[in-house]
Amino acid sequence: MSNNENFVNKKILAITVIIGLLSSSLVIYEFAWSPSHTPDMNSLLTRTTTTNYAIPQEGQRVVCIVFDDGWLTQYTNALPILDEYNFKATFAIITDNPDKRPAYMNWNQIVTLYKQSHDIGSHTTNHLNFAKIETASIEYQLSQSKQDLLKHGINATTFVYPEGEGAGNPDIEKLVQQHYTIARGINKEYLNMSQAFNQYALPSYTIRNSTTLETFKDYVNQADASNIVIIYYQQISDGTVFTSVTTENFATQMQYLYDNGFTVQPLKQLFTSVDS
Ligand SMILES: [Zn+2]
User: Distance from the CA of 59 to the center of ligand 1, in angstroms?
Assistant: First the structure.
């Protein structure tokens, strides 16, 4: 071995050692670095849960019915049909409307629903789109509507995002979490209760007059031992407004749920502890 070759070999050895040291320190660095990400994991875990929910139970096919906006027609047209089958639903109220705008339920009617074991949730004070307003306004919409409901003896734990905006945004969900237990958006999916899910961005299917009975059946028939189906309505009237459903179609849909043994429960029921 020439001096030159010997020098080259030593140089290779030195480089190998340096690389070795670098990579092992990289491993140590990574090891030290990963725990710093634990808080993010924790905050994600607090937004999701697989525990402490009451439904579905063995053999149940659960459908949750939500009425958005607090329209008067939900009380005059939908409630008598719900009562026929003893179905309890969730009503998401825009709290500035009652007693002020005749197209919406008044406080007496809302309190009556609450006393009949329906779930009364918040749908903000003014129905402002959370994607278009400042954090302070979002905070006001969340806390003031909660207070408005409390003033009438209603402890609202359910929230519904206006236009579904804000669901899936972790910053907004954190604000919602300070006041409510669950929140619903408008993502067209069923909810798989057998795995971790985001309780502040619950999915739901919108039902309108353009929704055929076949489509309605396709939605609700996804309900099984692990999947819950959430559907929501706006006006239950003559069906002329595109977001509305005729009283006749609504009656047919409820009859279908009843005849086929579906369990209809309010959203609030999702996080009622099995043990309590
Ligand atoms: Zn709405």
Answer: 33
